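Lab notebook: predicted structure, single chain.

Context: the supervisor wants predicted structures on file for every construct in the current expression panel, including those that have not yet been purified. This is the next one on the list. No modifications to the sequence; it matches the entry in the shared construct table.
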Amino acid sequence: PAPDFSLRDKNGNTYTLESLRGKKIVLFFNEGIMCYPACWNQVLALSTDPRLNDADTVSLSVVIDSKEQWDSAIGKMPELSKARMVFDFSRSASSAYGVLTLPSSMHYGSFPGHTYVIIDRDGIVRYTLDDPRMAINNDVIYGELQKIK
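Prediction complete. Output recorded below exactly as produced.
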């Protein structure tokens, strides 16, 4: 089973495992603001890919930065305003999902690196990808989502 989470986006909307039940969920844990351009590019690519955001699937980029830091980043890269980003200030979700100590973390134990978790409609983790290369992995994620009925 996926650990529960409660994370807010830049507009104050709260996302929880329970509120998303019935949908396939993609969580992209990443280093956030300090991970330019790799994480910024994946955050944007994940949010704007219609295959990963439809009536059946929701994709969230999980960052530990503040909303104000991302407001500044959006000023530098305005297309980031389209990103569905949720804030894990306390690192509680990142800890619960075990992404702070994976090979992609450049700040081992403190920050996630570049890790994807796919959760099925019933709240079960079905796939995890930790990518130290920090590539854009939309095609891989889409392929894994297709395996979930």
